[in-house]
Design brief:
mainly beta, Jelly Rolls, Immunoglobulin-like, 2 domains, five-stranded antiparallel β-sheet
Length: 317
């Protein structure tokens, strides 16, 4: 009896040590398939709006523009079938921000070491949602003091944030942090928590006027005591090919292909699936592809000995 109790206790300790304290970390908890922008509280069972109207994108939606090929860009989930999104900056609205929020499974323990990670990818529309921004970050709170309806000043402080501009519209960019909890934090919020004056932006493509906004997708959130993080592959297939690159992205006249496996051929397709160009190559690990295409988003299908990998890229003006 004593041996059974000891083993059970050790198993419980290990489970808690590796537990993801963020409920629905991969945004799969569909309460209702999305039928409009915003209303993340309605469509997802765990995630909430802590400011503005963050969005829930899921393949179950039957409404055009609310799935992966959506009204603010195109992105496949990093894992599973859903992901989240929000506005981090707008040149037309002062301090326009949206914050995603979640209540943790249990409060953090003061003095305990934790590991936080999440993934972002930039949304892109040629003439509107075409800004990259920095200051994407995480705010830890013991109580949710943010106002979902507030359009005024931002908090002006954050626990973790990125000073670099996030420009990638194809891959999921990982943010990872290690910290020691100094309070019993119960809530996490994600977004840009600084004013416009302290936020850097970069316009990528599009006209010089109009409603210019910075928008980002979020997926695979993890907060745990384990340095190994969370294994999202337990429930879904990861959609990432680490040994094949398409750059620069966005591009203008050409893109470079780099692969750890020799490249055999490539094809370029429109967002609607029409093949536009392509050719066989001489089994090199790099290739330079001329892209005499109109500004917009395209899909590159690259054949190697490992199979066909698809990468999205943007042609800017």
């Amino acid at each position: 009896m004593k041996r059974f109790f000891t083993l059970s206790f050790l198993f419980l300790s290990y489970a808690l040590f590796g537990q993801n304290l963020i409920p629905d970390g991969s945004a799969e908890g569909v309460a209702e398939c999305p039928s409009s922008l915003g209303n993340v509280d309605v469509y997802n069972s765990s995630w909430q709006s802590f400011r503005g109207s963050p969005d829930y994108w899921h393949s179950c939606s039957t409404n055009e523009g609310l799935g992966w090929d959506n009204s603010l860009g195109f992105q496949e989930p990093r894992t599973g079938d859903g992901y989240l999104g929000l506005v981090t900056f707008s040149r037309n609205l002062n301090n326009a921000r949206e914050y995603l929020g979640v209540e943790l499974e249990e409060p953090l323990q003061n003095g305990q070491t934790y590991y936080l990670s999440f993934h972002v990818s930039r949304g892109h529309q040629f003439n509107a949602y075409n800004l990259a921004s920095n200051n994407i970050g995480t705010l830890l709170m013991t109580e949710n003091f943010l106002n979902a309806e507030e359009l005024g000043p931002t908090p002006g402080f954050v626990n973790f944030n990125e000073m670099e501009l996030v420009v990638d519209t194809v891959n999921w960019v990982n943010f990872s942090y290690q910290f020691i909890a100094d309070s019993a934090y119960q809530y996490l919020a994600f977004g840009n928590f600084f004013d416009d004056a302290f936020t850097d932006t970069l316009r990528i493509g599009g006209e010089t006027d109009g409603n210019v906004t910075s928008y980002y997708y979020f997926d695979d959130f993890c907060l745990t005591q384990s340095p190994n993080g969370c294994d999202f592959l337990n429930t879904s297939e990861i959609r990432f090919e680490p040994d094949l690159k398409v750059w620069p992205n966005p591009c203008r006249d050409y893109v470079m292909l780099e692969s750890s496996s020799p490249i055999q051929s490539y094809s370029v397709y429109s967002a609607q699936g029409k093949r536009l160009l392509g050719e066989n190559v001489s089994a090199n690990q790099t290739a330079r592809v001329k892209v005499d295409l109109n500004p917009g988003m395209y899909i590159m299908a690259i054949q190697t000995k490992k199979g066909i990998t698809k990468k999205r890229f943007v042609v800017s003006n």
